[in-house]
Amino acid sequence: MLPVLMLFLLPVGGGIPAGVLLARGQGLAWPATAALYFISDVFLALAFEPVLRLLALWGRGIPALARLRAAVKAGMARSLGSLGGPGAGPATLVVISFGLDPLTGRATALAAGHGFLAGWAFAITGDMLYYAAVALATLRLNAYVRDPKVTVLVILGLMILLPALLRSFRSR
Q1: Domain presence at residue 170
Q2: For residue 172, is it within any domain?
Q3: 41 near 124, Cβ under 8 Å?
Q4: What is the pTM for the complete model shown?
Q5: DSSP 8-state symbol, 100
Q6: Which of 10, 38, 122, 145 is the most interior residue, by most CB within 10 Å?
Q7: What is the total count of domains within the chain?
């Protein structure tokens, strides 16, 4: 179980397909695998929250960081406006975490005034939905391809290409 958790702790999404296939190869049931991914998100929350809070604190007192903070806040306001409203409610934060990553989701939640538990709950919910989509796609594809290395490469390629393609279609 530890090697699967270690793959899930990788800071990029590439650990999901490899971790899912390794877990299946080790005979782990899907609920146990999902629980390991959830645990990796909890570790992320515990490691990232102090850094986020420190950056927010420094962002108020150091002029260069204060300007960066203002620029990020303005960018988030524009982005949130394009998602349907001025505030970042639970559904919006879940979508941000699903589409980007839980760190961005949590940072957005903090900027919107959500505390530790609620902010991470939204971020982890979005990330778990992302995990479910990638895990299911990985297992389905591997049923046809039957080569774990090829499966992981195809899924990683799709993880990189699909968002760009969706943005391209949306802009038209």
Answers
A1: no
A2: no
A3: yes
A4: 0.81
A5: T
A6: 122
A7: 1
